[in-house]
Amino acid sequence: MANIAQAVRMALHFAEENLGVTDVFGEDVGPPLGGAFTCTQGLKTSWNSPLDERGIIGMAMGIAMAGGKPVAEIQFCDYIYNTIDLLKLAGNTHWSSNGQWNLPMVVMTPVGSGIRGSIYHSHSFDASATHIPGWKIVMPSTPLDTYGLLLAACKETNPVMFLIPKALMRSRGVELIPGEPAEDKALSKMIDAPLGDRSKWAPQWPELSDPMIPIGKAKLVRAGSQLTVVSYGRTLPLCAQAAETLAAEGIDAEVIDLRTLWPYDWDAVKASIEKTGRVLFVNEDTEVTNFGEHLMRRTVEELFFKLLAPPKLLAGKFVPGIGLADPLEAASVPQQHDVEHAMRTLAVVAP
Amino acid sequence: MARDAKKLSAPAKSAKAATPAAKPFKALVTHSDALPLEKELLLSMHDTMVKARCLEERLIAMYKTGHGYFWIGGPGEEAFNVPLGLLIKKGQGPAFDFCHFHYRQSATLLAMGEDPVGAIRQMKNSASDPYSGGRNFAGHFSKREWNIAPVSSPIEVQYAMAPGTALVQKRHGGDGVTIVTGGDAGTAEGEFASCLVWSSRKGQELPVLILVTNNRWGISTPFEQVQGVEKISDRGVAFGMKTKTIDGNDPISAYLELKEAFEYVRTERKPYLVEARVSRLYGHSSASGANMNTVEADCIAMFEAKLEKAGLLTKPQAQAIRERYTEQLADLARLAKEEPFPDGSTIWDHVFHGEPGRDPFAG
Fold first, then answer.
1. Chain A nearest C-alpha distance from B55 (Å)
2. Which terminal CB of chain B, N or C, has fewer other CB atoms within 10 Å?
């Protein structure tokens, strides 16, 4: 059973072989390291770039313009901010040229807290990314979704921002990627690069196939009747766990993994809120002009008379960074108990 | 073509010492009166230079009479931009040249064979604007069938993209190269350094013709106030790439120097940095008035004097060419004035490729 890092690697291998990916590149993406999180080990088109995020995004745009299919990595999303200019340009190239040019390119970057990454390895990017029109924005929370959605991203003819929750990078799911061996160790032996000299190592890729997970479709993680929880990325498993915990207390929560932030699956969210009348949006980006706030606006505008309680957002605190010490990180971004508390509180609000 | 290497590398003393607004640019190198190009080419270059100047003057007139919101362009750079266009291998895909231009390149497009009505329609921001459908400023060209990437207003971003198209071209084989242009002020941006770094990696050099037109201005700021380098081309020396500073006000010099640089990039598949010293005749943009600067050298006047001296063109002939283009472009502007703006409902078009435009929040 793959973890998310292995899922990324297998997806990129599949995409190199079957979807026309020509370049997987970024800082330390090529051999010998194969990515700061090992996501790009053993790939045939991977290469190391200069330490230059603007150069990385520009290179991806150029490759895409000339007919290639790049997957560029920004090593941590904390370092993507100096590329905003180019990200805006990539997002508007099709529009500003009135449909002449399109950029089939994927930018993937690890996001969020959870590895005690301190101020510059804990940033989120979903709120900022959703302020840049022209991009599709994906953020999976399981290895299978990571694999399937990365294939979907590589099939896109538009720019796709692929946000990988770094806290979940080593987590394993319950669903098999089609073609992977069920045994963790068997997969590791096939596709994890050995420690030490890797110059003679080559991966043995499993016979993979495409689970056809589309961009723009949410996933119902747990069905429930009293309360809707909409989340994505690191906080999604916290919400799923909280729903199980609260079920024992008689609170029946529905949990939706949004998976794609743009274009997002409003139909799924709307149907759930219409059913439960209560909604909690959870993510860990800072709470001011947060993507969850957009979802709340839409909830209020379109579903006001269906609501049994005010919609609620649980997000990261609006502070300049996430401090290194455990209590600082825990106080800055939603934790398990925060999610449970928010759900419990919302469940008992009566009109 | 014999060239004086000492003169080529000599610092631009006159320009360096001058108060930029008060003294004209003095050429680093000029070619002799014995014109080294065929008559037909010389007259063709002159013709296109005049056409480009008349186009820019028409665009400025449109701006000043309320038929456009903003003007920016390249009058004064024709002696460099026309030869550039003539040397480009135009077409679509990696077998042809990729062009990452900035917004002073109308003369290059005309030299490539573009119809000037497109620039006029873009100034008018009509729906018929072939580059952006009324969405973007004048001079912001885009033409995929000729590999002309969309020109954008952020300074220097094009230099970050150029190595990407060049990488695909190098893999593709053939002699297609990537051309990137920008001004002197923009070389302070990080993307200029990115272009130098990414295109010069040892063993992975890329076929990029890196061009900088140095008019010694960044809007209102003199070059000397914000940059310490004598020659921008020296920036490339540290990266082991071929470099030169040329006289961009002389089309003969520009043609020969660019031809040599193109041939090197096409055959060696390595970068070449060319700095061309040029004039800026109507200021940065309409934001600074777009009025004729009579102090800076006018490349067309100088070229016409040279052609006249060589017995290739008379003053009345030159005047007739100018009058003909002035009239033709005025006619095109009158045509464009009658063309409609894009409909507001089209804002949703082309947000995503391959998908119909729609308001995601419309009921």
1. 22
2. C
